[in-house]
Specification:
mainly alpha; Arc Repressor Mutant, subunit A; 7 helices; 3 strands
Length: 118
């Protein structure tokens, strides 16, 4: 992720910071699944986020982990076992995501399909 400029003219606003954490096509979907299902293994998460590739899921999880939104626990066993969950910081974002969902429920046109959004 590119680091934002810190010159006075281009100072990072709180809004910009929040969008840098949750922005993009996949991060909010990943966070929602972790909030709804709790601790989730990588393969389960891949199945629960339709359309995401393994590469993108890994990248997005790494970003969310580095921003302290997602916790990753790797178990030393064969086969490998990795679990993901929301941190307290990640959980604190969930009311915002819920409000975004509510807005969508009340404002999505009846004729709009998921394929048209992608």
């Amino acid at each position: 992720m590119d680091k934002p400029s810190t010159t006075k003219e281009e100072a990072l606003t709180p809004f910009d910071y929040t969008l840098s954490i949750i922005g993009g096509k996949w991060k909010m979907k990943i966070m929602y699944q972790l909030a709804f299902h709790g601790v989730t293994r990588y393969g389960e998460l891949k199945r629960r986020v339709p359309g995401i590739t393994y590469k993108v899921l890994t990248s997005q999880l790494n970003d969310l982990e580095s921003d302290d939104i997602v916790k990753r626990v790797e178990y030393d066993q064969t086969p490998p076992k990795v679990e993901y969950s929301l941190t307290l910081r990640g959980q604190s974002l969930m009311p915002i995501l819920e409000e975004i969902c509510k807005w969508g429920v009340h404002n999505v046109p009846d004729s709009l399909t998921l394929n048209e959004l992608q």
